[in-house]
C-alpha cells in the first residue's frame, strides 16, 4: 500500500493531498459499481481529508508566533471542513452508508473545484490499500 503524500512543508503536503483527492474523485467517476477499487478510492479521500486537517495547525504556527491570531483563526475556519468531512466520510464508509458517502463526496468535489491538475501529473495509484488502512489505522505498512 502506498503512503499518503508527505513532502516537507504543510502547505506543499496539503496541495499534493488536494490533487490526490481530485484525481481520486475523477477515478470514482469512471467506476461502474461498488468494488474494492471504489472502496479504496473513497477511503483514500477520507484519509486525505483527515491529513489535510492535520496540516492546518502546522501552517498557522508561524502566524501565531508573530501574534497574527486573527489570521490563524480565519485560516483554521477556512479549512475546518476537511477534518469534518474526513471524519464523516470515514464513519459512513465503516457503516456502509453509501448515500452519505455520495453526499460527502459531492460536497468535497465542490470544495476542490478550484484545484488545477496538469496533464503531466501522475500520482500512480496512491489509493491502493486505503480501505485496509482506514479500517485498521494502527497497523503499519
Taking pLDDT < 50 over at least 5 consecutive residues as the criterion, the unreliable ranges are: none
Distance between the termini: 7 Å
H/E series: HHHHH
Total strands: the figure is: 0
Broad shape: globular
| Share of helix, binned | 55-70%
Explain this structure to me?
By secondary structure, the protein is mostly helical. It has one domain (10-113, 128-133). The chain has 5 helices and no strands. Helix 1 packs antiparallel against helix 2 (36-65) and helix 3 packs antiparallel against helix 4. The longest helix has 30 residues, at 36-65.
Would you spell out the secondary-structure blueprint of this structure?
Layout: H1 10-29, H2 36-65, H3 69-94, H4 98-111, H5 130-135
Keywords:
single chain, 141 residues, mainly alpha, 68% helix, globular
Question: Can I get a quick summary?
Answer:
By secondary structure, this protein is an all-alpha fold.
Amino acid at each position: 500500500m502506498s503512503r499518503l503524500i508527505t513532502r516537507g512543508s504543510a502547505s506543499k503536503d496539503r496541495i499534493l493531498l488536494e490533487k490526490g483527492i481530485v484525481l481520486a474523485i475523477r477515478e470514482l467517476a469512471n467506476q461502474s459499481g461498488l468494488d474494492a477499487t471504489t472502496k479504496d478510492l473513497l477511503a483514500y479521500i477520507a484519509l486525505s481529508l483527515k491529513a489535510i486537517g492535520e496540516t492546518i495547525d502546522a501552517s498557522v504556527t508561524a502566524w501565531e508566533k508573530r501574534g497574527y491570531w486573527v489570521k490563524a483563526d480565519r485560516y483554521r475556519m477556512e479549512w475546518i471542513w476537511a477534518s469534518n468531512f474526513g471524519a464523516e466520510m470515514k464513519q459512513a464508509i465503516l457503516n456502509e452508508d453509501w448515500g452519505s458517502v455520495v453526499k460527502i463526496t459531492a460536497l468535497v468535489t465542490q470544495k476542490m473545484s478550484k484545484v488545477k491538475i496538469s496533464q503531466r501529473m501522475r500520482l500512480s495509484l496512491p489509493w491502493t490499500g486505503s480501505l485496509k488502512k482506514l479500517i485498521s489505522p494502527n497497523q503499519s505498512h
